[in-house]
């Protein structure tokens, strides 16, 4: 297998180069002097940008795209062995590498590579940390799973030894990574189409933690069940964080919220007061996320004034409690939450946000997740005054009749919550315009395309 060495650039071909993650990695390699080519099924802003930077972009995936001058072919999980380009690469004896493996290999080229993992909060925490690193003039390379305004996209190519990325547990892809600093925000059941149970998920996170070198650091949420299972035998050092608990290395005390629900807290380290910090985002879960970012910044010897400044400039990533605007006097927020814990955290954050009735338009994400957490989804969404459920967003799955969005609506009705199933987005918009009142709060929620409803309402 190739070891990606920035000092020895080669020709790398990306199958599916237009994806948000693949395009970001291609951009980094282009800036490091690599020859980059790639194919996709259609043109996009991302492929146009890469083309303007010098990448050779090919539309369609055919065997002729795989030329003899290619040294390495990178592919995603969406590419199958019967793909024409894949077969051509095998036939020519050209090495193939998964996207996650490439990202892990690239980490070797940075002294301080940071990987942010967890069932929830990866994008927000990576974004928070990015703001801190930029405030400290560390010139980091950043790859994040969402659009971040401060870097005008999902990728920033820096010229220092600092690299920060999200690390996803799905298909165990983060076990390909080689970070010096790892963050584990939480460990819960998810991706049950891949994992068998919570024990298998915990084992995966344990393996991820133990990939750290001896001079590395694990930043671990102290509220995770039985953390000794994770850290026993760990070569690297570790620190913990959490809310109002002096047993943790970093803790937040004296928490308060301003009129818009933004958090303020006193930071304590090992039981001693450090400073008072303010956030420009909502919710207790974001105070927890901030504590993990503080711990990483402390390990990198960034001054507290830099940490405070960075956190204050962060007002959220796209689709993370994102303010969209107003319509007929009610406020429209969009959030990516698609797991019961995420939904609960987001709706809890609404308690400190000014509103009268709370409305939620929820689009379930994947059939396996909806079926696995049907009762938990219903309980979380029952915190709203009014809920609209639309069809399940299939993503990578096919509808086998396992579960229907109507099943979730029926479960929510059992809690006495006003709920209805509406399939068509335009019908949802009409219903909202007729029934949502001035000073109400509407949240569109889910990992699919439900955000388009809020966008249309604000346009109106």
From TrEMBL:
Pfam families: Mur_ligase, Mur_ligase_C, Mur_ligase_M. It comes from the Bacteria. Belongs to the MurCDEF family. It comes from Anaerostipes rhamnosivorans. It is an enzyme of class 6 (ligase). Pathway: Cell wall biogenesis; peptidoglycan biosynthesis. GO terms for biological process: cell division; cell wall organization; peptidoglycan biosynthetic process; regulation of cell shape. Gene3D superfamilies: Mur ligase, C-terminal domain, Mur-like, catalytic domain, NAD(P)-binding Rossmann-like Domain. Residues 11-110 form the Mur ligase N-terminal catalytic domain. HAMAP family: MurC. Cell wall formation. This is UDP-N-acetylmuramate--L-alanine ligase. It is found in: Cytoplasm. InterPro entries: Mur-like_cat_sf, Mur_ligase_C, Mur_ligase_C_dom_sf, Mur_ligase_cen, Mur_ligase_N, MurCDEF_pg_biosynth, UDP-N-AcMur_Ala_ligase_MurC. One of its GO terms (cellular component) is cytoplasm.
């Amino acid at each position: 297998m190739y070891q990606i060495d920035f000092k020895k650039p080669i020709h790398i071909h990306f199958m599916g180069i237009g994806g948000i993650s693949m395009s970001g990695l291609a951009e980094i390699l282009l800036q490091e002097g690599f020859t980059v080519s790639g194919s996709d099924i259609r043109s996009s802003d991302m492929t146009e940008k890469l083309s303007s930077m010098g990448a050779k972009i090919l539309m369609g995936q055919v065997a002729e795209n795989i030329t003899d001058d290619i040294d390495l072919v990178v592919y995603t999980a969406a590419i199958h062995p019967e793909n024409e380009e894949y077969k051509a690469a095998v036939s020519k004896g050209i090495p193939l590498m998964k996207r996650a493996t490439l990202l892990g290999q690239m980490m070797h080229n940075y002294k301080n590579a940071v990987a942010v993992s967890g069932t929830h909060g990866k994008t927000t925490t990576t974004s928070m940390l990015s703001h801190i690193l930029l405030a400290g003039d560390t010139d980091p390379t950043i790859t994040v799973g969402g659009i971040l305004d401060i870097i005008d996209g999902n990728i920033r190519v820096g010229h220092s030894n600092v690299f920060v990325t999200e690390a996803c547990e799905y298909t165990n892809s983060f076990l390909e990574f080689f970070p010096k600093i790892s963050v584990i925000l939480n460990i819960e059941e998810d991706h049950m189409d891949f994992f068998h149970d919570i024990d298998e998920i915990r084992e995966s996170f344990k393996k991820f933690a133990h990939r750290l070198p001896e001079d590395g650091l694990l930043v671990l949420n102290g509220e995770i069940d039985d953390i000794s299972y994770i850290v026993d035998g760990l070569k690297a050092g570790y620190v913990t964080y959490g809310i109002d608990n002096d047993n943790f290395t970093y803790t937040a005390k004296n928490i308060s919220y301003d009129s818009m629900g933004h958090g303020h807290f006193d930071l304590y380290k090992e039981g001693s007061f450090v400073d008072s910090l303010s956030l420009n985002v909502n919710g207790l879960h974001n105070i927890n996320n901030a504590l993990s970012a503080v711990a990483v910044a402390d390990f990198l010897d960034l001054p507290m004034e830099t940490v405070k400044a960075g956190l204050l400039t962060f007002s959220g990533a796209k689709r993370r409690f994102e303010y969209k605007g107003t319509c007929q006097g009610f406020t429209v927020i969009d959030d990516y939450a698609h797991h019961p814990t995420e939904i609960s955290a987001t709706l809890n954050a609404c308690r400190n946000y000014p509103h009268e009735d709370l409305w939620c338009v929820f689009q379930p994400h994947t059939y396996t997740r909806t079926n696995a957490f049907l009762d938990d989804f219903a309980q979380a969404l029952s915190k709203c005054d009014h809920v609209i459920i639309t069809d399940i967003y299939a993503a990578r799955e096919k509808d086998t009749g396992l579960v229907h969005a109507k099943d979730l609506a029926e479960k929510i009705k059992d809690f006495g919550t006003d709920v209805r199933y509406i399939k068509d987005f335009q019908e949802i918009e009409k219903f909202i315009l007729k029934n949502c009142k001035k000073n109400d709060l509407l949240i569109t929620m889910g990992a699919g395309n439900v955000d388009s409803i809020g966008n249309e309402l604000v346009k109106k």
